[in-house]
Each structure stands twice: as C-alpha cells, then as structure tokens.
C-alpha cells in the first residue's frame, strides 16, 4: 500500500527543504520536524495490547505497544529521519544498512549491515529521504527480510513513481509512506523536482 501524507505542515516544511538556498541547519531542522509528523502517522495503527493500570482515581484498562519497533536508516541520508522518529518512539532499537549508488549503472551497492537480534518479532521501519529508482531501498528490504523481518514499513520523504513501482513489484508486502510523490526522474536518476542530494544537503558535503 502507498500512502502520500496530505498534511499542511509537511507541505510547508518540505517546500523549505526544496529551496536550493536553504542552509544545512534549516534543512536538518525541517527534516527532524517532518520525521516527527511522519512517525505519528506511520505508527497510527500498530498493534496494542491491553494493560491494567492505576490512575490517581481508579483502576482502568490502558494500552501499550504489542511489538518491538526497529528503525533501519539506509546510510547515510536515512540517518536524517532517525532523530525525529526516536523523539516519538524513544524505545525503538536501531539497525543500520549502508548502501551507495553506482553513478554509472545507478545500481545499489551494499557496504555495511548490522541489526538488532529482535528483527523477526519486530515492526521494522526502513527510512531514507529519497525513493528514486528504488534500487537501494529494494536491496535493503531484501537484506532485512533475510534477517527474519516479517513486518516492514518503508518511510521516505520524497518519492518518484519509478521508485514506488519498483518497491511494489519487488516487495508487494511492504507498505510505503511518502511525504511527497514527485513527477519522476531525470537522466541522472535524480528526483524531479526533488530537493537535490539529501545526504549532501543534510551533512553539508558536495
């Protein structure tokens, strides 16, 4: 399932991030804020279990999250979404998977992977600001599935139809959540209109 969040604050903040003159600091600040809004939406229907609690007045039925939550940013840019998510879900464990894109073939290459042991019983939220060709995200999800994960959500800031189609084809069991769905890809595989290279803009590199 594909969900594109239609939220006024997200539209406002992502417009700031798209602006080529936005500084690294403001870019990161808005990414953190959007990540919090996305975390709220993505976790809206996660499973809960009942728990008897004592209020100052009486005993009542409360609720707690029924499954562990694991955040897996695709390095390096995916790290940019982690702080916002962890502000909302402070108990989440964090795995890491390192991918980079060959600029000639546009194919992803994995260079690092490390995950918590609780992957099989967890809800795994894969984060990456950009879903362009979908190659890196698809390979990352394949790797995560090999570690036993059964429930995987993909959360990206900006996506292209080509990337969405790739994930839906390769991993039809994975729900995709985007802050914005853009027009498509240019000849270099960048999202149009997009916001440039999210990693470079996030970390101030060229």
Describe the structure.
It is a single chain. The chain has about 210 residues and is of the alpha/beta class. The protein has one domain (about 1-205): Rossmann fold. The chain is built from six helices and twelve strands. The strands form three sheets. Strands 1, 4, 5, 6, 7, 8, 9 and 10 form an eight-stranded mixed sheet that branches. A two-stranded antiparallel sheet has the order 2-3. A two-stranded antiparallel sheet has the order 11-12. α1 packs antiparallel against α2 (about 25-40) and α2 (about 25-40) crosses α3 (about 80-90). The chain is globular, with a radius of gyration of 17 Å. The mean pLDDT is about 95.
Which features characterize this protein?
single chain, alpha/beta, Rossmann fold, two-stranded antiparallel sheet, 12 strands, 32% helix
What would you say about this model in short?
The protein has 206 residues and is of the alpha/beta class.
